[in-house]
Write the structure tokens for this entry.
Amino acid sequence: RKEVEQDPGPFNVPEGATVAFNCTYSNSASQSFFWYRQDCRKEPKLLMSVYSSGNEDGRFTAQLNRASQYISLLIRDSKLSDSATYLCVVKHSGYALNFGKGTSLLVTP
Amino acid sequence: NAGVTQTPKFQVLKTGQSMTLQCAQDMNHEYMSWYRQDPGMGLRLIHYSVGAGITDQGEVPNGYNVSRSTTEDFPLRLLSAAPSQTSVYFCASGPSPDTQYFGPGTRLTVL
């Protein structure tokens, strides 16, 4: 079983829509959680960290459910520029980041 | 600041050739790492370093060597290239393991 699992999508949504992605992780000892964004043929970039209490950054809201071992990302009022692949990332103790395969989002006019 | 730079951007090798992928950062970060990204596989950690002179293996280290003689540079060496090493290689650096800034990547094809 892969450590971090995501629905690959693609999610096709119209501009202005709200879309949510989920991610599950297998290691209950995981300590840190992140969402990265990766544009086509570009490097991954940190979108936001995910905290146990949940956190919001503008139109983006991230939630963590440790009991069920899943992480979510909610995007409100989708923009064309939100089209990208969203990577769920989990870290245990130590150094290595464990990446999911990503969820593809396409926002259409 | 240039951030994290990687050279070359593209490379084609023949099986058995060796080469070095360069990675440099100008942010004085202690942590640096190399990942490879393959279709349908996600990013996988090859090697990492927590400071000059200190390196360790990640999830997929076989066929690769690294060294960290300075804080700024973290080259990745392919000893004898194989078609299975065709991939996109990303270098990353950060002030801590939780904060990683990725370079633009090197697209490597091994024939």
Observations:
- The interface with chain A takes residues 31, 33, 35, 40-45, 48, 50, 56, 58-59, 90, 97-105 of chain B (CB under 8 Å).
- The two ends of chain B are 36 Å apart (CA to CA).
